[in-house]
């Protein structure tokens, strides 16, 4: 890894932008939901299904790109995937029905998710394992700009030019990222012609990763905790614009304000890592997140939750997410230096598939209250904490078992 500060800055910037493709594609069109529903003669609930299809596309696509990134290196799959994203964005801008938009958003996700897989894999390629959590925290600074810039920009573009121009803006952003990849991003892994793309070896590789206790514990913890954030993303247009009657522009500013919690906590996390371990930070963050989620549900049921209380509690909820995700991601990928692409793909696929389910649940249970959103958020935080506590016990038991087996081997070898 080149220690040149300028090179490191550009490297992390491009990796952050690649990671942000998915969030940016989600956040920018959220303020346009009412206009899309009106323009395509449908309902906001139907438009929300285009968000679920996007999550499904990201989940499936990451499993495809994992093996491709191992076989062809990191950059060639990036060019192919982002080109698909570009064409699908053009299709979204020209969509004549909500069904077409749902299908094109699926295709857009299948192309754009390559950036998320490649970025995580390249962090594992280019940085030492002990620095991965800090690098992921820095990447989150770039990623977290998306919820600040994207909804605000999307709200203004929708109000001034119309919702179709939101997808035109996404095309421009994608083109700039492609240029950055070509000129600034190094190839971090040479193509491996010996890596088989046949289904059986690929499935065997995935299976060897997913049964590793450290992987499934922290991958599931990260995914379920992140699903609470996706429930908020999917439900917030209905809650803020439908229930609290804020405008598209006001919604963009509210979304940006709440995102500041994610940014701030992810950067505080880098400081805390000097004193505390990732495991310690995750445990406390999830306990706090579960508590905040339960408070949101109680206040929603009792009718004591107004606009400002809702904003404040969601802000706290996302603050906890900023501590959980970088640490859990780093811990789940740590054992897999030789096949980081496949491990990264599995991590992302698990995260987005669970996110798709929670987003769809919020839409299905929509009842003109905030309860579907807050209820799913609380369940996700509580579930993530439960998975972490159970998984840690399994990891510790496995470690003790391995230590005993090693002692037995050493005793036999001395006889």
Q: What is the CATH homologous superfamily assignment?
A: MFS general substrate transporter like domains
What's the number of structural domains? 1
- Shape field: globular
User: Structural class of the secondary structure composition?
Assistant: mainly alpha
How many individual helices?
Answer: 15
CATH architecture level-2 label = Up-down Bundle
> Percent of residues in helical segments?
over 70%
* CATH topology category name: Growth Hormone, Chain: A
What's the CATH class label?
Mainly Alpha
Strand percentage: under 5%
Please report the distance between the alpha carbons of the first and last residues.
45 Å
Round the mean pLDDT to the nearest integer and report it. Answer: 87
Major sheet summary line: none
- H/E element sequence: HHHHHHHHHHHHHHH
Number of strands: 0
Low-confidence stretches: none
Keywords:
415 residues, mainly alpha, Growth Hormone, Chain: A, 83% helix, 0% strand
Any overview of this molecule?
This protein is 83% helix and 0% strand. The protein has a single domain (5-414), classed as MFS general substrate transporter like domains (Growth Hormone, Chain: A, Up-down Bundle). The relative contact order is 0.15. It is mostly helical and 415 residues long.
In brief:
The chain has 415 residues and is an all-alpha fold. Helices cover 83% and strands 0% of the residues. It is built from 15 helices and no strands.
Helices and strands, with pairings:
Blueprint: H1 5-27, H2 33-39, H3 44-72, H4 75-93, H5 98-126, H6 132-143, H7 145-160, H8 164-184, H9 199-210, H10 213-243, H11 248-272, H12 278-302, H13 307-333, H14 340-364, H15 371-414
Protein name: Bcr/CflA family drug resistance efflux transporter
GO molecular function: xenobiotic transmembrane transporter activity
Membrane topology: Multi-pass membrane protein
